[in-house]
Write a structure and sequence with these properties.
single chain; Alpha-Beta Plaits; 116 residues; 4-stranded antiparallel β-sheet; 22% helix; RNA binding
Length: 116
Amino acid sequence: MAKRLFVGGLPYGVDDSQLRDLFSQVGPVASASVISDKYSGRSKGFGFVEMESDEDADKAIQTLNGTEIEGRKIAVNEARPRPEPSDRNYQPRQDYGGDRRRSYGDSRQGQRRGRY
């Protein structure tokens, strides 16, 4: 499996195909994706590219890191793996859903104050 590259500082108008085209100048691209906000659909300004070989990935880092696109300098480096739940510093996301009325003291106080 080839190296996965992190690409930061992308202009918000760049899409997956433009990112693929940029990196295909260096070598064959296995995948390219710009990360977007799940609610608005707007780009978050970063993405990931997977080159078909490690040599092409290293060449892409050397060639494209610091390149200016639409007035913005992009950062290209090797992506870090996602943390696993077994990792020592892993912090799971907290769920803030549920009955929010109960978050202000215990239920007995809420009943005495007439909140329920």
